[in-house]
Amino acid sequence: MRRSNWLYVPAGLTYLFLYLPIAVLVVMSFNAADTPYRLDGFGTAWYGKLFADRAVREGLVNTLIVAAGATALSTVLGTLLAVGLARYTRSKLLDAIAVAPAVLPDIVLAIGLLAFYTAVQFTLGRHSILLAHAVFGTAFVAAVVRTRLAHVDGSLEEASRDLGATPLSTFARITLPSLAPGIIAGALLAFSLSIDEFVIAFFTTGPDNPTLPIVIYSMVRFGVTPEINALATLLLAVSFTFVLIAQRLSRLTESI
Amino acid sequence: MTEPLVRIEAVSRRFGEIRALEQVSLEIRQGEFFALLGPSGCGKTTLLRILAGFEHPDSGSVTLDDADLLAVPPHRRPVNLMFQSYALFPHMNVAKNIAYGLEREHLPKAEIRERVDAVLATIGLTGLARRRPNQLSGGQRQRVALARAIVKRPRLLLLDEPLSALDKKVRAEMQLELKRLQHEVGITFVVVTHDQEEAMSLADRVAVLSEGRVRQIDAPVPLYERPADLFVADFIGANNLVTGMVGADGLQVPGVGVLPCPVPAAAVGRAATLAVRPERVRLGTEGGLAGVVRDVTFFGGTTRVAVDVTGLDRPLLATVAGATAVALGDKTRVDWSASDAMLLGND
Ligand SMILES: Nc1ncnc2c1ncn2[C@@H]1O[C@H](COP(=O)(O)OP(=O)(O)O)[C@@H](O)[C@H]1O
Ligand SMILES: [Mg+2]
User: Fold this and answer.
1) Which residue spans traverse the membrane (chain A) (predicted)?
2) Do the Cβ atoms of B74 and A162 come within 8 Å?
């Protein structure tokens, strides 16, 4: 039986619904004129202008520092958390609590963190955003590594012990390499989530050193310019690449 | 040769309600090929894991060379385990997998390379040193797992169902290979299996386990000829088992008659089970019990005939050499010498 072609129509429309706004954004970023909503010729002038903008450059640097730091922290903590959970507890509840920050509404996490920082009189700045991002980053890494762990044969670690490796050496030589694809995928995910995170960063930022999403927000308040479209397009490209790589790695994970 | 290497004394292990091991005591001698045989779930793997150090008994003791083994962590025991799943490291090639245990001993690089090459030659995998485990066949993986364990030259090598993942033809080959290898390297082997033929053909001595208890420890021939109890008689090889009451001249079975067997004076008047091997049962025209041929199976060298005897709920089996003259539905008589049968208590 031949499949009727019209069944592709709803799927096509859904794709259109998902990606039309993004397509508009990308096209507009190459606008030659300074009209953010009407295309008037093609050019990359706005990209040049973007790189010349000091606030944007500083925002980018802050974002990269926060993302790199949060990723490093989340990767280490998330991996240890996943291994610890798998090894030392059978509690489903602990498991769920561990990955909850990944699915909690951002606004809840944001308010909670701000309340906490205020309660302990923590000064706000890049470091407070970094720690805040590490909170949900850790949960994401833990969730990804946990999935990977479920696919790893537990007898590998026993075989390593059996062949004379100490527990520490076994962790370094057998456990970590088996988990590597999951750990890398988790790290990429944490990084790409951190670079465009707004709500939590907005709540936990200090007076100086705003991250890029906050910079964009303050620019948008005076109206959308093609410069912002260009910036968003770049961010899009970066996150998209990261998500694709992360997905590749987790698929690799399943095939082993 | 007869020096005990391992002494297991009164070892018990429970998992909640399940008694995986109950008061298991046995000795494994230096240099022997020892088999732990029993149906699935009888505690074989648990015992092996206790020897390797991944499981601890609730009570009892285990010594190796007269030193307490239970106090030693797994990575310092002179014992290696070949896992049922082989547990080859997927991110290392064959040579790296085999060298892993030697590297952990911090041996000189040259010696490691030499020993790895030697063991690769022994198991016939020299050409595959650079392959990853997922590029190997089941039989090749099994060899690598074996090589990885014997290259450490352990005092004791434990093998958990080493051949169960292989197909029948490769399994027969590997049985011979295992035996040759054990002879060659002179390491004491303990192999776990649920396949009684495998245990009988491989091992010098076999311990039969059932529900966490040792039923009998013996060499294959006595195990077959003089089973200690009903479980062993039924589990090892084919057997005809008939229950009845012991009389002065044989086993009295209501509705069948008196079956010939040696009668110990003390057993008279008790309920017991008679066991007689199919190859000891004769088919003929005179004496014994009357029956009807129900099934004839030709195995090439031998033929197995199943005979329905009135009054018995299971057909009696007889194994005869070559092809046989009887056919399905024929009337025949079944007989055996009293000395070929044995009586077992019903407990
Ligand atoms: N870690 C464990 N937790 C709970 N029950 C177990 C565990 N290991 C083994 N058992 C139980 O103990 C019994 C013996 O298991 P095992 O030693 O694996 O048997 P075998 O290897 O002879 O098939 C089985 O009933 C099994 O379910
Ligand atoms: Mg088992």
Assistant:
1) 7-30, 64-86, 93-117, 129-149, 170-195, 228-246
2) yes
